[in-house]
Design goal:
The chain is an alpha+beta fold. The chain is 32% helix and 18% strand. The structure holds guanosine-5'-monophosphate. Guanosine-5'-monophosphate binds next to β2.
Length: 139
């Protein structure tokens, strides 16, 4: 399977579709998921093309995980989270819907289940969560 330059996350990286960015560096981009499965649900992606973990380079994977760790630590502060769930799906059979490598980073609290998938979030709440994460990253 090859990389499709017109996938939604490629369009976000090119600025053709808006996104609520919380962090970026030379190699990675982190932004809010529009269908959050938990308050503060962030997606971390490489800036360079990779369909998923199966075709990504070791450097892309390492860069993404460094950003995942940075964002996760900020989430503990931003939401008083007790833990973090990290999800990453590969190919349709593996649950992947957008074919640009991405990690789901989900702040978790004891006894609180994830929201069901496929439900659009409230844009104001998503923006408020992004503000909290950005503030924690700057601290
Ligand atoms: P996956 O491919 O791992 O199943 O999930 C893709 C994720 O991308 C879903 O959690 C979905 O909510 C999110 N998503 C799909 N389209 C957009 C979009 O246009 N903007 C943002 N921020 N997230 C999106």
């Amino acid at each position: 399977m090859s990389y499709d330059n017109d996938n939604i996350f490629a369009k976000i990286l090119r600025g053709e579709i808006p996104s609520e960015m919380v962090y970026q560096d030379a190699d990675t981009f982190a932004f809010m998921d529009i269908m959050p499965r938990a308050e503060g649900h962030v997606l971390v992606i490489p800036k360079s093309p990779a369909r998923n973990m199966l075709d990504a380079s070791p450097e892309q994977l390492a860069a993404c995980l460094a950003t995942v760790q940075k964002v996760s630590q900020a989430m503990l502060k931003a939401f008083g989270a007790a833990g973090i769930t990290l999800q990453q799906f590969n190919e349709a059979a593996g649950g992947q819907e957008v074919f640009h490598l991405h990690y789901h980073v989900l702040p978790r609290h004891e006894g609180i289940r994830l929201n069901p998938p496929g439900v659009m979030g409230d844009q104001d709440l998503i923006k408020a969560s992004a503000d909290k994460i950005r503030t924690a990253l700057q601290a």
